[in-house]
């Protein structure tokens, strides 16, 4: 059964209820482009579990001091209570004034872990210790030096292709005593492109354009005779890297070979078997794109309403994979 390619995942009822509560309690709405500044109204403070136990212990100590008229007991209770009240102010100021900006999220294949980056800036000349950025059940702990700006990465699992937003993120701290939790909730506008998962065991690449009379064999870089060196590209095969040049302290270069190569590969939607559904077709095309890139040949991608002309290289590969990820989405229709 085909999976929807919407830009937002379908939430279970519990998550939908949480989103409604967030809108009511924290005034959360559409994703924010930033910068997001944590002012007084955006920071919330409540006792932690340890703080509640601490408060109960203070009440018991106070009752015992009253019952037995313990002057030192009164002093100890008020001293500890004062420390607890002071920790409220310290936890609040540990978040106050921080500035948050959406960072980058590198594209991933569906099923892989995406890494959402949030740029956190500390404009004050004071250290910000014991900070934690949480997304769902995963969190990243960090601290900021005075005036420091840091790119904090938070991992998140991916379950569907398309544009995925991180959703609800929480920046929190329990500093200094762990008795008080200060936190802020926000939804940054930080879309991540999730490519379709490549088919595990795809069939061989389809015949090139020559098989249908649309192309012919031409002289292109092949694997026959050594033709020289060129600058290395990320999509180049490791076996073509000039390792001897690199070992002598030279730059990273790739060997070029000349020979006869086939015509451009035509990876077309309509040439796939009719029994494949939408997601299966996208999965096979993703696997073919990766195989075509590894082969070093030029390839074109043809989808309904979308045509990527023949090309090769890292940028061309990711352009084609992005078209697969956005196939059928409202975002893709708006881009046309």
TrEMBL record:
<keyword id="KW-0812">Transmembrane</keyword>
<feature type="transmembrane region" description="Helical">
    <location>
        <begin position="43"/>
        <end position="66"/>
    </location>
</feature>
<keyword id="KW-0472">Membrane</keyword>
<protein>
    <submittedName>
        <fullName>Uncharacterized protein</fullName>
    </submittedName>
</protein>
<feature type="region of interest" description="Disordered">
    <location>
        <begin position="199"/>
        <end position="233"/>
    </location>
</feature>
<feature type="transmembrane region" description="Helical">
    <location>
        <begin position="72"/>
        <end position="92"/>
    </location>
</feature>
<keyword id="KW-1133">Transmembrane helix</keyword>
């Amino acid at each position: 059964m085909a999976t929807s390619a919407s830009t937002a995942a379908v939430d279970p009822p519990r998550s939908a209820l949480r989103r409604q509560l967030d809108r009511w309690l924290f005034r959360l709405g559409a994703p924010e482009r930033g910068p997001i500044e944590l002012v007084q109204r955006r920071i919330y403070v409540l006792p932690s579990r340890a703080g509640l136990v601490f408060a109960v212990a203070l009440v018991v100590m106070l009752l015992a001091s009253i019952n037995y008229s313990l002057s030192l007991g009164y002093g100890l209770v008020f001293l500890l209570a004062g420390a607890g009240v002071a920790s409220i102010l310290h936890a609040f100021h540990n978040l106050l004034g921080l500035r948050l900006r959406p960072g980058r999220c590198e594209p991933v294949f569906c099923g892989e872990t995406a890494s959402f980056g949030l740029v956190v800036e500390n404009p004050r000349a004071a250290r910000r210790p014991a900070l934690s950025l949480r997304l769902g059940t995963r969190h990243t702990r960090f601290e900021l030096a005075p005036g420091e700006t840091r790119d904090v990465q938070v991992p998140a699992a991916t379950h569907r292709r398309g544009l995925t937003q991180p959703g609800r993120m929480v920046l929190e701290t329990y500093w200094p005593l762990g008795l008080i939790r200060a936190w802020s909730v926000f939804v940054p506008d930080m879309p991540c492109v999730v490519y379709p998962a490549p088919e595990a065991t795809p069939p061989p690449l389809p015949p090139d354009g020559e098989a249908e009379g649309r192309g012919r064999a031409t002289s292109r870089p092949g694997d026959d005779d050594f033709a020289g060196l060129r600058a290395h590209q990320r999509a180049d095969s490791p076996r073509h890297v000039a390792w001897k040049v690199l070992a002598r302290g030279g730059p990273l270069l790739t060997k070029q070979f000349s020979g006869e190569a086939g015509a451009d590969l035509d990876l077309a939607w309509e040439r796939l078997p009719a029994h494949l559904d939408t997601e299966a077709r996208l999965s096979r095309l993703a696997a073919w794109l990766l195989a075509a890139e590894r082969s070093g040949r030029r390839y074109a991608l043809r989808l309904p309403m979308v045509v990527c002309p023949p090309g090769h290289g890292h940028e061309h590969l990711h352009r084609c994979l992005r078209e697969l990820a956005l196939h059928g989405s409202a975002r893709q229709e708006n881009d046309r």
